[in-house]
């Protein structure tokens, strides 16, 4: 007996794929949530650790027009210096 | 029963079973692939729904601002707090969420000579010029603009206007003249018979007058 010769096998395989699709979709919706970026390990690490976030902002490096990475002394927004 | 020749799968088609197990295994693997692709697509779809913030970097360089580049960031709200931040995934860079946007989702940030990051919005140029006391007039610019438009019109045919639209006045005049000529020709053709009739009537009338002049009155009032 070879399964490939049975039409029922193809029907069952198709139903299996459909079930897999819907189950995975439902799982992904639940697992990922509204903002998939919050599941990113790098982002998760920072948002769960305020000290790390402060450190990242404090040690901000920007590449200037000469190609050198410069450390930012302070950040001004709306006329005020941002403090973290 | 010979124990040495005992085969528990005797009477079973073992090669067929192995084939079937292999087929089911392949179906399972395809199911896994479908699941993986579905998960990836759902994630990508959700990522595209998150609005991206554009940050344009500038630098104060030699008394003017030059553009350094552009980055796409996502806004991250720290759970349980009101703290919002921008995250640039391509550079793994965290930034505070800037307040002033040029338009929704577009931020200008300048790196000053003092190594400060400044979020800014370009103000009205007219207002700045008025505040600086610069006298300026738009007349010259408007004149130049109009002059240029006319120059282009003169030297290049305007493709947006069809030829019959461009010459519609001439075409209307020509059609009107042709129509008038035809009308005049028809009227003159019809008048030809009338003019011929008028000639015979005139002749008859002149004969009648001559007859009246030669005729002696036999009754009525005789003029003195």
Can you describe this structure?
The complex is a heterodimer of chains A (84) and B (224). The longest helix of chain A has 26 residues, at 7-32. Chain A is α+β, with helices and mostly antiparallel strands and 84 residues long. In chain A, the strands form two sheets. Chain A has a two-stranded antiparallel sheet with strand order 1-2. Helix content of chain A is 50%, strand content 14%. Chain A has helices spanning 7-32, 41-47, 50-58; strands spanning 61-63, 69-71, 74-77, 80-81. Chain A is built from three helices and four strands; from the N terminus they run αααββββ. The longest helix of chain B is centred in the last third of the chain and has 47 residues, at 168-214. Chain B is of the alpha+beta class and 224 residues long. The radius of gyration of chain B is 51 Å and the shape is elongated. In chain B, strands 4-3-2-1-5-6 form a six-stranded mixed sheet, with no helix packed on it. Among the domains of chain B are: 52-122, no CATH class; 125-160, no CATH class; 162-198. Chain B has five helices and six strands. Chain B starts with 13 loop residues before the first helix and ends in a 10-residue tail after the last helix. At the A-B interface, α1, α2, α3 and β3 of A face α1, β1, β2, β4 and β6 of B.
